[in-house]
Amino acid sequence: MNYKMIFNIIGRILLTEAALFALPLGVSLLYGERNTPLAFLIAAAAALLLGGIMVLLTRKGDRQAFAREGFIAVALAWILLSLIGALPFYISGEIKSFTDAVFETVSGFTTTGASILTDVEAMSHSLLFWRGFTHWIGGMGVLVLMMAIIPNSSKGSMHMLRAEMPGPIIGKLVPRARDTAMILYLIYLALTITEILFLLAGGMPLFDSVVHTLGTAGTGGFGIKADSLGGYSPYHQWVIAIFMLLFGVNFNLYYLILIRKVGAVLKSQELWFYGGFVLASTTAVTLNVLSVYENFGEALRHSAFQVASIITTTGYSTADFNLWPDLSKGILLLLMLIGGCAGSTAGGLKVSRIVLLFKIVKREIKRALHPRSVSKVRFEGHRVEETVLDSVSGYFAIYAFCLVLIFLLLSFEPFGLETNLSAAIACFNNVGPGFGGVGPLSSYAAYSPLSKWGLSFAMLLGRLEILPLIIALSPASWNKKYR
Fold first, then answer.
1. What pTM did the predictor assign?
2. Helix or strand run (H / E) with residue 238
3. pLDDT score of 337 more than 90
4. Residues near 320 by Cβ (< 8 Å), separated by ≥ 6?
């Protein structure tokens, strides 16, 4: 176990967080706020002090990192990142409970968008910006950001990139992991700026445009209005719906477009399935909610928006889908589980895993009928290795087990099956709003402190795709003799 390498990485991430506090601090000074500047300065000082000590004490350590070190470093870094990131909410007094502040921050960094706030419009501009900014940071991953902007001579950076980037198969775009991280963030930044410009072109105020874009880019969904996006124009709703879908696409495909390999993009099975899910779901929901709205156009807009928001696990809303017919709510619940594409900022199981699971089931049925047959699973034009298929099957089993445990934890709460089950699914899949008492116009404020800590852990499990957090918290992983 390379302890020095682990704590060096964590220290660097905390130093990165300390630098990132400068942006919300600038917003607080711009708006002349009284309580928040000191809160951000204290949080930045805490990150700077702790991160600086870690880096100084480990600067001469071995730079070799293997998969175990990568998983542990990423998991512990996200925990510390969230605890320090909660300080501005708590120190400013705008969130009275530290448990609530941690829940809000974990929800932000994991791009979940579940909130304990009952009056979001009463919050200061700087903390509203910080909430949205945590989405943007967590969407692509803070370690990916650190790798992109800080020179790092460590060996094994790809292990850490795989630990933080979502999906069953993560590979380099270019030979060096740092260059891969830089390319991903440049694409991310370009899409972010583009969306801001489109929203500004439609007359949305600059602050609103920036915060909503940060929430869209990270597919998180923290807004600044009580009705989320319901009060904005149809133009703004369509723009955000389109960009939610764009951020739910595998970022590797954008790189292929940049290097003019459009043909490879059009052959992507995951992209076609992703588009198919969106199109089929939008059609079904639109037809199902026609009686709720005045005309077909309005029904289509709200249906398309909610389908885009839920499948990309963003969580924005233009309507209270709690009031929709059961068929539409059932479709949205399934989309919560599916999620976006691998290598995107979206949560959920991921479309690629769903496709591979269907292919695995199909192969097993064929084997049952023809025991001697040899069947290979192909995906994206290539044969899928058995190790990948085993990891997908294993991940699904662990995923289902964790989801059951989270739901059982909430079963002690007096909110009913619909509320507790959808809360478990929404937090574990990083969606945010659920149904019943945690619908799009409600919050998680009524849950007990124990449940809030449990749901915070569930959000981290979902964002890091379970294994890094389990490995980091397993005593066996810290054993030097462990193999």
1. 0.93
2. helix 234-247
3. yes
4. 439, 440, 441
